[in-house]
Amino acid sequence: MQLIDGKKVAHHIREQIKQEVNQRREQGKKTPHLAAILVGNNPASEIYIHYKIKACEEVGFSSSLIRLSAQVSEAQLLEEIAKLNENPQIDGYIVQLPLPSHIAEDKVILSIDPDKDVDGFHPINIGRMVLGQKGFLPATPFGVLKMLEYYEIPTAGKHAVVLGRSHIVGTPMSILLSRKHPQGNASVTLLHSRSQHIEKTLQEADIVVAALGMPEFVRGSMLKKGAVVIDVGTTRVEDASKKSGYALKGDVHFDEAAEKAAFLTPVPGGVGPMTITGLLLNTLEAVKNKDNK
Ligand code: GUN
User: Fold this and answer.
1) Domain containing 65: what range?
2) Any idea what the CATH number is for the domain that residue 168 is in?
3) What is the predicted pLDDT for the residue at 293?
4) 0.85 cut: is pTM over it?
5) Does residue 96 carry a catalytic annotation?
6) Atom number of ligand 1 nearest to Cα 98
């Protein structure tokens, strides 16, 4: 079994981004600037945002964090978004999800300028993705494609099974793997909470992308020998042996899957660093799109 080392792939791509940022600076071009809006203080979101900002520093991007209280009104949040849309210094930005329940997520995403939507969540970018047009891909599926590319894992004609139909991972992943693209051309099955014969379908999969948020759902017995297994799950589970009091668990039972899989991503250190790398790639693309305008 070969471990898919997300940290290594992320480092490799981030070095390339860093070089490009340096070149831009030498050429007098704009330094990419990513902004993030964080509403409230959800502990998981705090950590994600911390890593996103750190990653910006690592590659030489500018970054801004806009913190809003959990009680902020939807109108106030939309006002902040309008400011980011108007601000020529900001090339791309994200609104960290989830949002408090009194704010309509759909409405917020719809108000983001699609050309600054480096999370790739706006319906215009989703539409571009479905039609194979140029746009921003959602960061996690984008990161997964980059891993497949790095390890030269063939996908054409393979049976890929995606577990979970979230808007930010499962659904776009299933579309991307079936596209006409070097990391596409797969026959894709999307499994979800209403699916039947999950175990049997998984046993037929050449490629499994697990994005359910159910720790260790995928057992070794559900996998075909030689499968490529990408674990997107990162659920916090209590673990008294850890300083933080919790451990991150993937959707795949790692030790069992390691006995069956040809390629396997660990959690942490697999997809996580690649998600942020996808975000950095989108932000670089956003600034480049503006170069010639
Ligand atoms: N919450 C969990 N994952 C993500 C992500 O990729 N982007 C944003 N904005 N929020 C998230």
Assistant:
1) 28-113
2) 3.40.50.720
3) 73
4) yes
5) yes
6) 1
